[in-house]
UniProtKB/TrEMBL annotation, chain A:
The lineage of its organism: Bacteria, Pseudomonadati, Pseudomonadota, Gammaproteobacteria, Chromatiales. It comes from Thiorhodovibrio winogradskyi. NCBIfam families: cytochr_NrfH. The keyword Iron applies. Keywords: Cell membrane, Electron transport, Heme, Iron, Membrane, Metal-binding, Transmembrane, Transmembrane helix, Transport. This is Cytochrome c-type protein NrfH. It is found in: Cell membrane. InterPro entries: Cytochrome_c-type_ET (IPR051174), Multihaem_cyt_sf (IPR036280), NapC/NirT_cyt_c_N (IPR005126), NapC/NirT_cytc_sf (IPR038266), NrfH (IPR017571). It comes from the Bacteria. Residues 25-116 form the NapC/NirT cytochrome c N-terminal domain.
TrEMBL record, chain B:
Keywords: Calcium, Heme, Iron, Membrane, Metal-binding, Oxidoreductase, Signal, Transmembrane, Transmembrane helix. Gene3D superfamilies: Butyryl-CoA Dehydrogenase, subunit A, domain 3 (1.20.140.10), Flavocytochrome C3, Chain A (1.10.1130.10). Its EC number is 1.7.2.2. The chain crosses the membrane at residues 20-42. It is found in: Cell envelope. Residues 539-566 are annotated as: Disordered. This is nitrite reductase (cytochrome; ammonia-forming). It comes from the Bacteria. It catalyses: 6 Fe(III)-[cytochrome c] + NH4(+) + 2 H2O = 6 Fe(II)-[cytochrome c] + nitrite + 8 H(+). GO terms for molecular function: nitrite reductase (cytochrome, ammonia-forming) activity. Its main location: other. Belongs to the cytochrome c-552 family. It is an enzyme of class 1 (oxidoreductase).
Length: 166, 566
């Protein structure tokens, strides 16, 4: 009984669609786009990027060396990828995640990137901020707040703390 | 966005003609979106597949597979890299040979006077050309040479095994040859063939199965029999020495175990040399596994295939050939490492070495002076051993075969060449400075080394002139014994660095040290030869030596008398 109005409605919609092939084609195309997009999101483990697990970073093979080196590093027990490579405030964290995610996706899909991979100036400032997030009290005299200085960063001397790939 | 489906009427404010365009545009944009997402999905799945299966064995390879073709089916990227050492395509023929070093640096003709290198000596080419260029160099075609040359210019382990098994009375068939490496047989075959004539060994090599029966087209063309002239040492090539199969330059099997693909060493000369190095007491801090073996019982000789780390093996495979050695018909091919890897250590080794007939060792008698001389041959492995990169644990392959990425696969670049061709992957993995800065640093080292080589070469040629003047004045070989010793030490050191292919980069300070000693020995030989012709020196003790002026004269010691005077 309750199926009657529903079937009517569906038939009416179909009739309307068939009366306008262009609209029909667009609707189908959008459906394909949505379906493929969802399949790609699932195949690429898209949801995993919304969490903090360092193993997410080795979804892409290129990070395997960095990950392997980090496991043996001095910071492995106290900091994972995101602790050093993302800002520690909500907005900065998600903006950086989006920015890097998009760049990495383009780079690894197209293969257009420098080998060995090199950190961008902006990301280097993020890691510097992460150093100071934990060690700031200790080195405050060397890094006065509000004075960004790209020529003077912790990793220039302490290169092996995160993942020295040797 | 899509309210058309529920509303047949046109929305207000839209002309009837605009709707198809809008719809068509949306449709096209959606299609482009679908294509883009499909492409992303396809590459992603491809990368995930790469990561899951680095390679698939579709063709069988065994210990007999010197032909790289079946290997290339399994490991196409490495195969392509190996083939790329020929450049864009293989360039054979006399017109394609690289520039003569003898023309670029005429002093080389005098350095090698009386030795085949003064006939023909050219710039190097890629691995692909090693067998072809050896077949056509006038060093081979104008002068008889031993089969030992093929130890490094061809894929010889199956040939050695075949001859060795035959000599040891084992059954030789393609099946028995393919079973395992059979080190004793390989060593025996190496001993059997080292001193035999080159052409004879080459013919044996061509008659050796290569794992692809019925397929007789080598990846790189063979050299014309008898070189460009069709002659060897003035004799026309015999008709019955027609190639029966393929001879290959160094291929996959020479550095890889066909069962496991592990990096391994196969060259008898290296296996004996590195065992002798380990058994000696020379410091080798860059080869930790030798230190561990020395600390152990030493019951069995040091075997790199059992004991070396993977990182050491990434240098050892190159050290199978890029070394100093004796290659002639008076002794089996020998790597002079028992006393160490420095130029001085190898020289001391040759000083004590005796030929099979018991006579003193020398590579050749110098054509201008007659001094017994040593020839240094491209000691890259030894010079690298003295450098900062070796000390820091950097292997040959790290710079000459740097890791590259194919999708999700990480593999060594098998296009072995100068690291300057791939500064980003070779240098910038460790050196986080710009490409131009790294290039400039290399240029600094190499230009300093070149300048020192030219200075040592000038000293060397003046030495030869002066010795010949003494000989023209009647000096005998006995009179010149000390001069000849200096000449040998001078030319050995100059040759050591000039024939080494890094122009000092592998160990810049060591290269400068060796060249400085070369200059010193040249000048000492020159001074001794001049002194032999000069009249006896007068007595110099009669000469006045001027003291330093303005020095307070020493007071005579005070006496009791002088104190009362005051």
């Amino acid at each position: 009984m309750s199926q009657q109005p529903l079937r009517h409605w569906i038939r009416r919609q179909l009739a309307l669609l068939l009366a306008k092939p262009m609209v029909a084609a667009l609707v189908i195309a959008l459906g394909v786009l949505g379906g493929l997009g969802l399949a790609t999101f699932v195949q690429g483990k898209g949801a995993s990027y919304l969490v903090n697990d360092p193993r997410v970073c080795i979804n892409c093979h290129i990070m395997q060396g960095s990950y392997d080196a980090w496991v043996h590093s001095s910071h492995a027990a106290v900091a994972a990828c995101n602790d050093c490579h993302l800002p520690h405030d909500f907005l900065g964290k998600w903006l950086t995640k989006a920015d890097n995610g998009l760049r990495h996706a383009v780079a690894f899909t197209t293969g257009w990137f420098h080998e060995p991979i090199q950190i961008t100036p902006r990301n280097r400032r993020v890691t510097q901020g992460a150093c100071l997030h934990c060690h700031g009290d200790f080195v405050a005299h060397a890094f006065p707040p509000g004075e960004a200085n790209d020529d003077f960063m912790c990793v220039h001397c302490h290169r092996a703390v995160g993942h020295a790939e040797r | 966005m899509n309210d058309d489906s529920s509303n047949i009427d046109q929305p207000a404010g839209q002309s009837p003609s605009a709707r198809p365009w809008l719809l068509g545009g949306l449709f096209a944009a959606t299609l482009i979106g679908v294509l883009l997402i499909t492409w992303i999905l396809v590459t992603m799945v491809g990368h995930q597949q790469d990561a899951r299966e680095p390679y698939a064995r579709v063709a069988a390879v065994s210990e007999i597979s010197t032909d790289p073709l079946p290997w290339g089916l399994n490991w196409p990227h490495q195969f392509d890299g190996w083939k790329a050492t020929a450049g864009d395509e293989f360039h054979g023929g006399s017109s394609a040979l690289p520039q003569s070093k003898l023309d670029a640096d005429p002093w080389l003709k005098r350095l090698y006077a009386g030795y085949a290198f003064s006939i023909d000596y050219r710039e190097a080419r890629g691995h692909a050309y090693m067998l072809y260029d050896q077949g056509v160099t006038e060093r081979i075609t104008k002068k008889p040479q031993p089969g030992a040359c093929l130890h490094c210019h061809a894929s010889v382990s199956v040939l050695y095994r075949r001859i060795g098994m035959d000599a040891m009375g084992e059954e030789v068939t393609p099946e028995t040859l393919a079973v395992d490496f059979n080190t004793p047989a390989v060593m025996r075959g190496f001993e059997e063939l080292s001193r035999k004539p080159y052409q004879e060994v080459l013919a044996l090599l061509q008659a050796t199965p290569d794992g692809t029966p019925g397929e007789n087209e080598p990846v790189f063309p063979s050299a014309p029999a008898g070189g460009f002239s069709g002659e060897y040492a003035g004799e026309p090539v015999a008709d019955d020495s027609v190639a029966k199969g393929e001879a290959h330059p160094v291929t996959c099997i020479d550095c890889h175990d066909p069962k496991t693909m592990a990096v391994r060493v196969t060259r008898p000369g290296f296996l004996q040399g590195i065992a002798a190095l380990a058994a000696g007491d020379a410091a080798v801090p860059h080869l930790p596994s030798i230190g561990q073996w020395r600390a152990g019982s030493r019951a069995r000789p040091y075997d790199p295939n059992q004991l070396a780390s993977r990182q050491e093996m990434r240098s050892f495979v190159c050290g199978q050939c890029h070394v100093e050695y004796y290659c002639g018909d008076k002794a089996t091919l020998t790597f002079p490492w028992a006393k160490g890897l420095r130029a001085d250590d190898e020289e001391a080794f040759w000083d004590d070495f005796r030929f099979a007939d018991g006579s003193d060792f020398h590579d050749f008698k110098h054509g201008e002076t007659g001094a017994p001389s040593y020839k240094a041959q491209h000691p890259e492995f030894e010079l690298w051993s003295q450098g900062i990169h070796a000390r820091a644990g950097v292997s040959c392959a790290d710079c000459h075969m740097p890791y590259q990425r194919q999708g999700a696969m990480k593999l060594s670049d098998h296009r072995v060449t100068s690291p300057l061709e791939k500064i980003n992957s070779a240098c910038q993995t460790c050196h986080h400075v710009s490409e131009s800065e790294l290039r400039a640093r290399v240029a600094t080292i190499q230009s300093r080394t070149r300048a020192l080589i030219q200075r040592a070469a000038a000293a060397m040629t003046e030495m030869l002139d002066t010795i010949r003047e003494a000989q023209a004045a009647g000096a005998s070989d006995d009179d010149l014994a000390a001069v000849f010793a200096h000449q040998r030490q001078a030319t050995w050191r100059l040759d050591y660095i000039s024939s080494e292919n890094s122009k000092g980069f592998h160990a810049d300070q060591e290269a400068a040290r060796v060249l400085a000693e070369s200059i010193d020995h040249s000048r000492q030989a020159q001074a001794l030869a001049l002194r032999w012709r000069a009249p006896d020196a007068p007595d110099t003790s009669v000469l006045f030596s001027r003291p330093v002026r303005g020095v307070t004269p020493e007071q005579p010691p005070r006496t009791a008398e002088s104190e009362t005077d005051e």
